Amino acid sequence: DRRAYGSALAQMNQTPPRIVKRPARPTVRESYSAGGVPFRRAEISDACAGGVQVALIATAGGRRWQLPKGRLEPGEEAVQAAIREVEEETGLRTVVEVFLRTVEYSYTDTYRREIPETVHKRVDFYLLRVVGGELSDLSFEVDGVVWATPEEALRKLTFSGERECVRQALEHWT
Q1: Confidence (pTM)
Q2: Is 39 exposed, middle or buried (0-12, 13-18, 19+ CB in 10 A)?
Q3: CA distance 31 to 123
Q4: Which of 63, 99, 121, 148 could make a disulfide contact with 153, Cβ separation 3.0–4.6 Å?
């Protein structure tokens, strides 16, 4: 028993070995998502470049503007996930026009974690034409939604990789 061991060591004028806890190693996780640049042809009265508007979402209490995206479900193809996520986050039904690009980045996830986790994320983005639904911020993941001209979207979007998706989409509209 531990007391007897400590007592024996004390009699020998020694201290018990100290147990040192090593910090846990940070983990790394791979994440694969898909999303899109949902667009509609603007009303004649709207002054937009190319006559197009893009749907954007706000997250982080409205501090981040971004394109709708989310993780693939088991067995789901990226294109299916892009269409599903856009509808879940914006209320818009869409069809795929073309694959735009893959954006890759890493970040540190500290949400509800004792030990931060590095996440390597890959997101496939598609150009998605709106065919129905109504722009809505009813999703719990979204703090706001807005229709924006491509130029407004380029100014508003928080992440450079997503701005590149809109620049690439512009090539299809002009």
Answers
A1: 0.80
A2: buried
A3: 8
A4: 148
User: Residue 118 and residue 126: Cα distance in Å, rounded?
Assistant: 26
For position 112, what pLDDT does the model report?
82
pLDDT tens digits along 35-59? 999 999 976 555 555 689 999 999 9
Q: Name the helix (H) or strand (E) containing 83.
A: helix 78-90
Q: Rounded distance, CA 18 to CA 126, Å?
A: 57
Q: Are 161 and 103 in contact (CB under 8 A)?
A: yes
Half-sphere exposure of 13 (CA within 13 A, CB side): 0
Q: Residue 5 contacts by C-beta under 8 Å, 6 or more apart in sequence?
A: 16
Q: What percent of the chain has pLDDT over 90?
A: 66
The Cα–Cα gap between 158 and 148 comes to: 14
Instruction: State the DSSP string of 101-160.
Output: EEEEEEEEE-TT-SS-EEEEEEEEEEEEEEEEE-----STT-SEEEEE-HHHHHHH-S-H
From the number of C-beta atoms within 10 Å of its C-beta (0-12, 13-18, 19+), residue 128 rates as buried
Place of tokens 């380029």: 154
